[in-house]
Amino acid sequence: MAAENRGPQVEAVAILFLTLSWVFVSLRCYVRSVIMKSFGADDWLAAAALVLFSLYCTFVLLGVRYGTGQHLDNLPKEDIPIAVKWWWCCELAYVSSTTVIKASIGIFLMRICVKRMQIIAIWVTMGVVILFSVFYFFLIVFQCRPSTYFWTQYKGASGSCVDPSVITSSTYAHSTISAVADWTLGILPIFLVWDLAMNPRTKVSVGLILGLGAIGSTATIVRIPYIKQLSQGDFLYSTTDVAIWSTVEPGIGITASAMATLRPLFRTFFARSKLFGSTPVQSSNTTPWPASKRPARGRYFRSGSSAVDAVAEEELGLRSDIGKGVGITTVINSTNVNELDGKGKRGKGGKEEY
């Protein structure tokens, strides 16, 4: 059997998406906490998903070190159980991270959600995803008796596991539910921005921005044909494609959903950059992000188009006055025509301007 090693491919994908996710989630946290001053539950969930994804990538890299992506016949016998154990840990971290990021996307969309049916659609989607993910999580944990038999079987330990077809079928179901949830949360923004007081071009751009969080569905769909590898022999090598796309899916989801929150950062950059001919704000009375009149954090508008537009501006950074200097005119009304102006001259009437 050829000494083929696909471990470096798995390792490269894990490092790439771990780096991207940390960069963009860090930018998201900066935008939401510093620029917008509106760090909410969806942002906490995004941070939690990042932590879980980081654990996942750590398990992936450890698995590659001991044999993930290689043929069993080419590995030292003592390394096989270790590699399989880290593969098992990857499954748990994968389910956890994908579930949390979908919950984050759903709550983010609810910030500008108005209609009751939209709210119900989001809650139903998140509920189905969470319930099935919990079931799938525990199925993975207890697929073998004892659980450790999943990797100790390669040491000759005693135990038993459920039929591989059960895991394969459940994985197909989990992937299908994930893809449907991603598409639901990706299409819903079209209806969220439809009634907002924006020009068509802005509506399209905002809809696309909100829909970024559902890009992970592409990786989910691509991953589905490879799920059959879970029931094949030569486990560590035959499941390489599943391992790669299981990394891409949450990596894209976390990165894209973070990108959906970065519009205020880009607008601030373009406003302050001399490269784009912007004039620095001179007045201390002018701020690029005026204080909003939105409700206390954790509450969302449910009705009223003007209120919805205000929330959309606040949450997505749609302000048009960023970076523009605002002149201040002070008007002093005076009833005494004999008062002196600031230059020692008599006023001409009822008011003077400075």
UniProtKB/TrEMBL annotation:
The keyword DNA damage does not apply. It is found in: Membrane. Residues 27-267 form the Rhodopsin domain. The chain crosses the membrane at residues 12-31, 43-64, 120-142, 172-194, 206-224, 244-266. Keywords: Membrane, Transmembrane, Transmembrane helix. Coiled coil: none annotated. It is a multi-pass membrane protein. One of its GO terms (cellular component) is membrane. InterPro entries: Rhodopsin_dom_fungi (IPR049326), SAT4-like (IPR052337). Belongs to the SAT4 family. This is Rhodopsin domain-containing protein. It comes from Cudoniella acicularis. The lineage of its organism: Eukaryota, Fungi, Dikarya, Ascomycota, Pezizomycotina.
